[in-house]
Amino acid sequence: MNTCSQIKAILWLGIVVCLFTLIKSQATDDPLLDVIFITDAAAKGALCLDGSPGAYYFSPGFDDGVDNWIVYLPGGAWCGSVGGCLEKTKNPRGSNINAEPTQLALPFLRPNKTINPDFYNWNKVFILYCDGASFMADIDAVDPETKLYFRGRRIFTSVIEELMATKGMANAANALLAGDSAGGLATVLNCDRFRSFLPNACRVKCYTDSGFFIQAKNLPGTLATNYFAPIVAFHELADYLPKSCTQRLGAGLCFYPENVGGDIQTPLFIVNSDFDTYQLVNFIHPNQPDEEGWKNCTSTFTGLRNCTTNQLQIIRDFRTTFLNTLEGLDDNPSRGLFISSCYVHDIIYTPGSWQGTPTFQNKTIQQAIGDWYFERNSVQIIDTEHSSPIRC
Fold first, then answer.
1. From 30, 50, 274, 345, the catalytic residue
2. What does the pLDDT read at residue 24?
3. Which site in 170, 178, 264, 354 is 20 to 30 Å from 305, CA atoms measured?
4. Is 345 a catalytic residue?
5. What letter does residue 270 receive in the DSSP assignment?
6. Measuring CA to CA, which residue among 187, 213, 358, 352 is closest to residue 278?
7. Residue 282: HSE in the Cβ half-sphere, 13 Å Cα cutoff
């Protein structure tokens, strides 16, 4: 792994640790949930990169929520090489060996009616992300030298089947697949498949947070167009991506929601920033070889004060490109939108974002998702007030 990749891996691991620390610190009054390892995971091949069993957390529903379900897929980036995937086996994004009991403190997973009025009493499932490919890979062979397993698709399938067989999910009336970042992309790519597991449910929908990654091919120094190609190739994902996309585009381009979103039949809600910091930092490199200057400018909101006039314009151009890409999706009335100008990635992890800032058209994210899911109102909210990043 080169120095740049090592730095990115360390930064991402730091983010993961901080997010899990935040999860635990925000919910001291919520139940501590044991890790549930998939039954007969080895026989099913439902294994993490390092061969440890796939796992999940489960919080049972209660009262009139016993037949309603949320399944959550967390983020944690990807790996597209032997070195990158071996590096992931050293942390929770590639191994469940050290998985511990935890609390589900993301606001839409909490059993608190004040904080989570629409989903507080639902069954809640948190599937641990440890495959490096957004729960999409399914390679049967294992290299005896690397001993790496690429089985995220089997983990997702095995958890859902286990929930249906042992936890009552087969009787689901309402269900929501949700995820953020790499898990948000997994939500997009697995949305229709999730719906296929629950043909008798009244309402099945999907919610992606910070998972709408764009090609941004018109921006200077963009790495976005080829960002996913090595991942798709390394994990041999072509056969599991929508044929409607792979028949007209290279498989690497079919990892982008903009190229598959129009094919998704299940209602999808997109929460994203049009100043998505992960994409700005990792996809756009206009300062090469002075990459450090771009990172100093874009890594944090306060870092924006270090940006040159040209760099600030590129950041604003990213927003324009993001909104144009979103507008290029088909006009699907079942799709919901909440697009903010917050300078952030993983919006749902931002303190106060669920019921506080940002608020647009007099709706918080919590109200917008609830209204969309239960069809109380059509929700297509885009922050048109701010053309520059805002702090949230």
1. 345
2. 45
3. 354
4. yes
5. E
6. 213
7. 19
> Of 276, 285, 340, 383, which residue is the catalytic one?
276
What are the start-end ranges of the E strands in the chain?
36-37, 55-59, 68-73, 123-127, 174-180, 203-209, 268-273, 336-340, 380-382
The number of beta carbons lying within 10 Å of the beta carbon of residue 313 is 11
Ranges of residues in the chain with a pLDDT under 70 are 1-28, 288-290
Amino acid in position 42: A
pLDDT, position 224: 86
Which candidate, 218, 347, 217, places its Cα nearest to that of 277?
Answer: 347
Clarify whether 181 is annotated catalytic.
yes
Q: How many CA atoms lie within 13 A of 217 on its CB side?
A: 7
CB 182 within 8 A of CB 134: yes
Q: What are the residues facing 56 on neighbouring strands?
A: 36, 127
Model confidence pLDDT, tens digit, residues 105-154? 899 999 999 999 999 999 999 999 999 999 999 999 999 999 999 999 99
Contact between 235 and 150 (Cβ < 8 Å): yes
**Which tokens go with 340?**
């903010």
- What is the pLDDT at residue 2? 44
Cβ atoms of 266 and 205 within 8 Å: the answer is: yes
Rounded Cα–Cα distance for residues 301 and 312 (Å): 12
Q: Which of 134, 181, 210, 341 is catalytic?
A: 181
Task: Please say if 378 is a catalytic residue.
Answer: no
Structure tokens that stand for 287 in this block: 């300062």
**Cα–Cα dist 332/245, whole Å:** 18
pTM metric for this prediction: 0.91
